[in-house]
Every structure is written in C-alpha cells, then in structure tokens.
Model the fold of this input.
Amino acid sequence: MDRPLADRIRPETLEEVAGQRHLLGPDALLRRMIEHGASANLIFYGPSGVGKTTVANIIAKRTDRPLYRLNATTASTQDIRDIMADIGTMVAPNGVLLYLDEIQYFNKRQQQSLLEYMENGKITLIAATTENPYFCVFNALLSRSTVFEFKALTAAEVLPAVERGIAILEQEGGLPLQLEEGAADYIASACGGDVRKALNALEFLYETARPQGAGLFISLEDAKAATQRSAMRYDREGDNHYDLLSALQKSIRGSDPDAAVHYLAKLLVAGDLLSPCRRLLVIAAEDIGLAYPQAIPIVKACVDSALQIGLPEARLPLADAAILLATAPKSNTGHNAIIAAMEDVQKGRTGDVPRHLQNVHADSAGSGPHETYKYPHVYPNRWVEQQYLPDAVKEAKYYEYGDNKTEQAARRYWEEIKGRN
Done:
C-alpha cells in the first residue's frame, strides 16, 4: 500500500492503456513498432497522466536491454556518465534503454551528451515532455528521434481506470466501497484528462471515506471537494498558457462569443488576469481595427476597470470586452498595412524623406531646386495631390480598404474628393 494507487494499477499491456487510440489502436504506427519489437529513439509529448510513462514501461518489457530512468528536473550530467559507464559491461552488454522524463529541463549540453551513444545505438532513448519538443529539444536530438503526441483523455476514457481503482481498493482493504451515484463519473470528468489525478483523488477519498454498514461510503459532495479545480491544466510558462490565449483570439476573430467567453473563463479561473487583458487590447487593434475603431478605447476602458477592481469582479468588464469584440465587424487592414510597410523598411526598400516633407523651409534652405510643401487645409476639401512616400517606394500600396461598412464609407468619401481634382 506504500506505492500510490496510480502506480499499483499501472497497465501492463497496450490493451489496458486508457485512450491514445491514435497511437495504440489497431494498425497504429506506434503499436506496430512495439509489437514488432523494433528499436527506435522516441519522444513522447503530451500532458501529465496520459500514459507516456506507462507505454515506455511496456516497451521496456519487450527489449533485452536494462531500463534506466532519469527525471531531468533532478538529474545531472554525472547521472548520465554513470549510465554510460555501465554500457558494455555485464550490467548492460548490449546497451541500455533510457527513459528520460521532463527532458525540457535538460540544457543543451546535457542533451548533447546523449548524442554519441544514440548515434552508435548503445542508448535507445525514450524521452517524455509536457512541452512542445520542437521548442525545447535540441535539433540534433530531434533529428534522431520520432515524436509521438499523447492527447488528454476524455472522461469516458478515464472512467474504466477509476472503476479498476475502486476494485483494487476493495480487494486490498477487504471492505466493500460504495460511491454515491455520479461520484465515479465526477472524479473521471474533473481530472482534466489526467488519470493520475483521478486515481490520486480516489485514493484520498478512500482513505477519508465514511463508514457505512459493513463497508465504506464516498459521497458526490466529497468527490467534488477532493477534485476542485483539478480539471484545469495551466502553466503560465508552458504551451497551455499560449494555447488558451491563441484560442481566445481565434474565437474572437471567428466571431464566436461563446468560445471567447469559455477561453477567457479558463484563464481567469486559473487566476491569470494580466494575460487576457493584454491579449484583448491586441485583438481590438489587430482583428477589429478600422471596421469598428471605437472598440479600441472601449476595450481599453474595460481592461483599466478590470485591473483596478481585480478578480473576481474583473471578470465582468473583461467578459463585456470579449463579447463586444467577438460580435463586432472585423478588419485586419491596419495589421496588414503595417506588416507590409515594416517588411519594406527591414529589406531596405525605403529612401530619404521627400524634401518638401522635411522639417525645414524648403524654399529657404540653401541653393538648388526648391520644392514647396502644399498645405492641405488651404485647398478645397482639405486635400491636394503631392508625393509623400520616398522616391524608392513612391508607388507602394500598403493599405487596402476592408469590405466593412466603416472602411467602405471612407473609401467612397476619398474617391469622391480625389476624383474632383
């Protein structure tokens, strides 16, 4: 009973692994590799508690190589050297299988120290990470490995593991365990797709269960208390943080207020106030822009209010801002114009400011041909034709009117005025 329940009931066959049918289903590539006994360097990428370590254990049982385990949060370069020292000895005559958890915490030098042994086949590496490996794993190591992405589990996929855990606890404790209707389902659904979380919650509930008759009883209320907020997967420095912000912006850009409020809620429940405030300000300028220019000061007012009053009340002005942006007309013409202009400048496609726009009186500055700036306010309709761009890009076109009512009205206004001259 010293080992956690999640470890005691860890699956030993591919059929017992919860979910991951895209990797382990019939004829899936990873399953075929395991069943054929093939040896390859692998990187398992996905959230915690979804089967990465379990699958690595199953692979280890199908090889004649000793299994070494390291966790990059605590392992050092010396730990790697110690493993290398065993290679070629009676301990590991044919090399080793190294399971390296949380590889994202290894620095470049530590990751590089594995390359020589991976290259000659003396180490078969199975690395696990909760972060995107294309950002956190050294390229040379990535090129020698195959990446498989593990997905968060659904409640339906977690439930069999919870039921198996109930059976194990009854068997080990010798007492019948009764759960109130809906309690097992709630544990499975509130774990955020993490089997380990669900089983840890179940074990805690078992240890604190109320006696009832000849057995033990777990109420739905206790299940809710033990799993509160555990469905949230959130790390302000991790991929999930940026995934949520991306989903918020794309939902607003796609004019879906329900999805926008959902992702905003996930950020706020996690206690993150600043990130959605900043992203909403960006969205107002990038995705709504000139189609509804008033959105920018309105969202700024909502953000200022949210930061002033703080959570939990800050949810109200931010929800207003998110819904306003999601239901507003959209235009990214300003975004496209500045990106195109900056690309020209960065590539050197620019030139001197035209003489008549410089901060001098062209008609009194030295000798040579003079160009006089034409002051638009003294011309009809406050417009006069003259060159504003540098000579090198004088024909450049960065801004195109959007097809929304506001920008089309501006287009018609200026076409009419410029057409008169």
Summary: The CA atoms of residues 69 and 99 lie 5 Å apart. The first helix runs from residue 5 to 8. The first strand starts at residue 42 and ends at 45.
